[in-house]
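FORM 12-B: Structure-to-Sequence Request
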């Protein structure tokens, strides 16, 4: 819903304009002075300011200048009295979108408002998409010749043009967000927003506010009206990453949006309608979570209309050379080192690793090597780090596993517990004890990490 601020010190004009715009489907804020208008502009996500030229105190021209200082793109339509053409021209030169002379007819006003709001929407969308469009997010540009990846590309081709919800599953670091982008940018919604939200690691109240937005004063710290991600994604695609981490109470509200296409902002009473395609992702087994009572069965079926599964990198090791070449070229450009290359023995070494952290870990390894290599070649010593390919566990030598086992006896549970505890401790230390980051590096959920911390008596810091 587009938001319009009406500024006029005449009560009748404020009433008439606000009622007209509400009937046309706009969300309207009103102010009887320029000073009050500035406060609303500061606290509210607006799409248009409609202001009278003549007002006591801060007049329309000064308000226009202050608005343009704050947000040069926010459109302002000026209302002038008959015979003030010179002031209207000055307003246009100062950045006003247009001006109307009293008396004006409603149709003329609504046409100008519609043009201004659409212009502003296109500006915002162009800014947001500038980098993404240049990056060419298309399924055809995803790296992989593996048979499973080729099958995935064909599925994306079929799925993208439809309006159906999609559930993407796969381990952490396999590229689920990239698949979501490929679906969006190959769909009829590609000209509309793609909005993303990671559900992991956010407190329930904050997650609800991020999803649905909030009204000013809805809770402590809600100092202004804020549109939520659903509202921002209207007519486009909403990518919900780690949807399996969402609390049950919010799952019910998400289900309502999927079923009825409506919601209310936190602390609000107005029902808002949205047209959004949902693409969700998780590294959990949601069927198993349904069985445990952690995830709503009805929501699972709503999300799982179409299902895509991303294989871990260890199941598509024939793609590692392609991915390595891609990342070497990427960081050669970023580091202004056009002759950067990788030696055959370094590539063979990388191709033989298990890559617990999947593509994300492989890219991090190449980026580090590209920065630290002493010449224009990434060699074995540049990529052969203690943690490469193993997530976060560190092994000092190739025989360190055997050394670890030999010192513990032959009990498999004891060996596995020791290795797991070491991995958890290492991940926490490398993430500065930020649990969400440590869990992501380990490829597990934050709640599972917290369970393992209790299990091994690892204290929070």
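FORM 12-B RESPONSE
SEQUENCE OUT:
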């Amino acid at each position: 819903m587009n938001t319009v601020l009406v500024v006029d010190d005449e009560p009748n004009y404020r009433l008439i304009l606000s009622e007209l715009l509400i009937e046309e489907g706009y969300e309207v804020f009103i102010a009887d002075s320029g000073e009050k208008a500035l406060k609303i502009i500061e606290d509210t996500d607006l799409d248009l300011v409609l202001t009278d030229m003549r007002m006591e105190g801060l007049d329309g021209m000064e308000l226009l200048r202050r608005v343009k200082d704050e947000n040069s793109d926010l459109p302002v339509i000026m209302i002038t009295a008959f015979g003030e053409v010179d002031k209207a021209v000055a307003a246009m030169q100062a950045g006003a979108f247009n001006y109307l002379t009293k008396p004006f007819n409603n149709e003329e006003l609504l046409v100008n408002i519609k043009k201004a709001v659409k212009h502003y929407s296109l500006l915002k969308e162009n800014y947001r998409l500038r980098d993404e469009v240049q990056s060419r997010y298309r399924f055809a540009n995803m790296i992989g010749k593996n048979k499973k990846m080729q099958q995935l590309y064909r599925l994306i081709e079929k799925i993208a043009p439809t309006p159906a919800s999609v559930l993407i599953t796969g381990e952490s670091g396999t590229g689920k967000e990239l698949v979501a982008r490929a679906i969006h940018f190959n769909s009829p919604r590609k000209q509309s927003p793609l909005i993303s939200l990671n559900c992991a690691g956010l407190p329930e109240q904050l997650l609800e506010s991020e999803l649905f937005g909030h009204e000013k004063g809805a809770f402590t710290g809600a100092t202004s009206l804020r549109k939520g991600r659903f509202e921002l994604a209207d007519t486009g695609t909403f990518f919900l990453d780690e949807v399996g981490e969402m609390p049950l109470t919010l799952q019910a509200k998400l289900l309502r949006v999927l079923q009825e296409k409506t919601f209310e902002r936190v602390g609000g009473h107005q029902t808002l309608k949205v047209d959004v395609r949902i693409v969700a992702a998780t590294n959990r087994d949601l069927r198993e979570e349904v069985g445990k009572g952690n995830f709503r069965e009805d929501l699972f079926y709503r999300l799982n209309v179409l299902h895509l599964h991303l294989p871990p990198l260890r199941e598509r090791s024939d793609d590692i050379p392609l991915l390595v070449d891609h990342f070497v070229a990427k960081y050669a450009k970023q580091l202004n080192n056009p002759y950067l290359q990788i030696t055959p023995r370094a590539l063979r070494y990388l191709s033989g690793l298990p890559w617990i952290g999947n593509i994300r870990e492989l890219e991090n390894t190449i980026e580090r090597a590209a920065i630290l290599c002493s010449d224009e070649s990434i060699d074995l010593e540049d990529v052969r780090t203690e943690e490469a390919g193993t997530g976060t566990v560190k092994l000092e030598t190739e025989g360190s596993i055997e050394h670890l086992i030999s010192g513990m006896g032959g009990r498999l549970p004891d060996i596995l517990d020791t290795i797991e505890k070491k991995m958890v401790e290492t991940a926490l230390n490398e993430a500065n004890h930020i649990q969400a980051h440590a869990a992501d590096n380990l490829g597990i959920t934050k709640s599972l990490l917290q369970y393992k911390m209790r299990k091994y008596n690892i204290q929070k810091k």
